Amino acid sequence: MTPTIRPLTAVFAGEVSGIDITQPLNAEQVAAIEAGMDRYGVLVFHDQPFTDEQQKAFSRNFGELEHTAGGNVTKPSEKRLDPYMADVSNLGLDHKPLARDDRKRMFNLGNQLWHSDSSFRAVPAKYSLLSGRVTVEKGGQTQFADMRAAYDALDDETKAQIEDLICEHSLIYSRGLLGFDDLTAEELAMFKPVRQRFVRTHPVTGRKSMYLSSHAGKIIGWPVPEARAFLRDLTEFATQPQFVYAHTWKQYDLVMWDNRTLLHRVTRFDDTKVRDMRRTTIAGDAVTVAQLAA
Ligand code: OGA
Ligand code: MN
């Protein structure tokens, strides 16, 4: 059976029904989901009680899984999940909410800033798939903003101005925005900035989008304050309500999105409550711009 997709806003985001994605899919079902992603940018599936293995198996229909190394300050010995599962929960190894001043927690608060997953990697991510294993009642929504629609709404002068710009992205910049800057020499080396195009063209639909992200901290050839003011201004423009879908979680929702065309962020919630969210990420297949030699 092929799934049905219902639009969630006038612009993007779709809710999928009529499919059990915890079980193996046929080629037709996978193609229907890919086509839905190209059109809607974010798809919501309800009642999918995944195990980690099932989530990884579903994710692999869309490409190679991204390894989580280099994406956070959690030491391998402190990780709850296997290295292909990004732990987006607020939990420690003891399955309890992290202490208020825990470094891992403070680092993860960066997810409250609009971002695109892995834009800090030389080859940035294609899709993210987030499974709500234990969700919270209040707050903790995931908001998405459509950077294709936002690009389309720019005036021609701004479109021309950004067309060939190249930005530097790094976790150093996004965490620095929240004042989290006590990084070790090892972390600074791991989070070395990478270059990304400002304007991306989707490989299937040909639509252009702005590749904004809180990880973006420089524009090549621009004074830093001018670049930051510009990035902030365009991010404010691109995340106005008409470009946003806010997802309110229910347990066992699975939400997948295209990082090439969307921004997302989590809204604040009571961090003493358990919120167990687990993400698989589909690796991209190309750089967006040539990288500098190391
Ligand atoms: C993510 C992320 C937001 C959330 O999984 O990449 O930013 O709602 N999560 O936890
Ligand atoms: Mn994210």
Characteristics of this structure?
single chain; 294 residues; alpha+beta; Double-stranded beta-helix; seven-stranded mixed beta sheet; three-stranded antiparallel beta sheet; 22% strand; binds N-oxalylglycine; binds manganese (II) ion
Detail the topology: elements first, then pairings.
Blueprint: E1 4-7, E2 14-17, H1 27-40, E3 42-45, H2 52-59, E4 86-87, H3 103-108, E5 127-134, E6 142-146, H4 147-152, H5 156-162, E7 166-169, H6 171-177, H7 185-190, E8 194-197, E9 199-201, E10 208-210, E11 216-219, H8 224-238, E12 244-247, E13 254-258, E14 262-266, E15 276-281
Parallel strand pairs: 2-3
Antiparallel strand pairs: 1-2, 3-13, 4-15, 5-13, 5-15, 6-12, 6-14, 7-8, 7-11, 9-10
Bound molecules: N-oxalylglycine and manganese (II) ion.
